Amino acid sequence: MNKRLQCIFLKGELPVTQTKGSTSALVFSTIAMIVSFTIWSMISPMAQDISALYNLSATQVSILVAVPTILGSIMRIPLGILSDKYSGRKVYTLTMLFLIIPLIGASFADSYGWMLFYAFFIGMGGTTFAIAITYVSGWYPKEKQGLVLGIAGVGNIGTAVAGFIIPVIVATYSIDWAFRILAIAIAIMAVIFYFGTSDREQSGQKTLKSALEPLKHQQTWMLSLFYFLTFGVFVALGLYLPTLLQDLYDLTSVDAGQRAAIFVVIATFIRPLGGMIADKFDPKKLLTVVFLVIAACAAIIAFTTGNVILFTVFCLTIAIFSGMGNGVVFKLVPMVSQGNTGAVTGIVGAAGGLGGFFPPIVLGVFKDMTGGYYLGFILLALFSLACLWVNLRRQKLVK
User: Fold this and answer.
1) Which tens digit of pLDDT belongs to each residue from 47-75?
2) By the number of CB atoms within 10 A of the CB, which of 171, 210, 219, 349 ranks highest?
3) What range defines the domain where residue 254 resides?
């Protein structure tokens, strides 16, 4: 392992200068991600309405909520690589146009099976994260990567937007029209993005072998582990909190969706702060604090789900520190393998997405088995402690 990779978590050389077109790339990529993430997260806020329509069990609901994260996670890897090799602008636009197909299909779904099928492909909305990060990072120098990628990550706010608007659309119109309205929105966004941005020069000569070169780096896998936790808990709670709040405290779908949206808003807007702090201070120490706080909060929540005030306080604390952790991790991503930011982003982003896939299913299964959710939060605390242990050993691992 070369010297640059040995100190990758504290240093990095990215010979990129900020050029004309960088601001539009950042602004339109972030807005496009907001719309795409609204689509990616739209099933959760109306899950109870779909459950009532098809008389679903808790496990079936949790699978429906979680299934969009599968494709949205796995496909981040190839789309990140394609964004490195070709034009991130074109890949982004085509991905948004693709989303129109499952959205229209879901609006005509007449069974749980068909809804599950289209929800899987709606998951492509989650891949825009890897595309946006890759596209935006190429426009900015290393000293701005933490802040800029944190700003781009604000596109995650789409999860909160879904929590606010989807229950209202469903209550005002119907489940079908929720899908149709977002199909129109993403079509408009694709056109605006394509004509509002420009391409950076791409080599187009990169082979699959060179694109997968980051898989050999320990840093790639450590960041994937950390992002599995920080982004995973963000996605999992952002998606499953509406169901959790309705079940635990008998809230309406609109009230539960809005409360979950607050969680997402906090985590999302803290993310740039985490990246900015990581530009100036030791990321290892920052991640140590993040993992300790998440572990402590999850352990407390496990035994206080009957108290809505304590549940709220510690969930929002998790929102703050998971958002900060997301920003810190992605400050480090462009430094792992110069010229392969898309590949690293895809791998790490896929890990984070998968981190959001499993918890809702686990919580649903535990609910059906035990009647409660405490075991799920205990597992979260234990996994956070495992990440803490890896982080503390990291300097030894890179020597």
Assistant:
1) 888 988 898 887 888 889 888 988 888 88
2) 349
3) 17-198+214-397
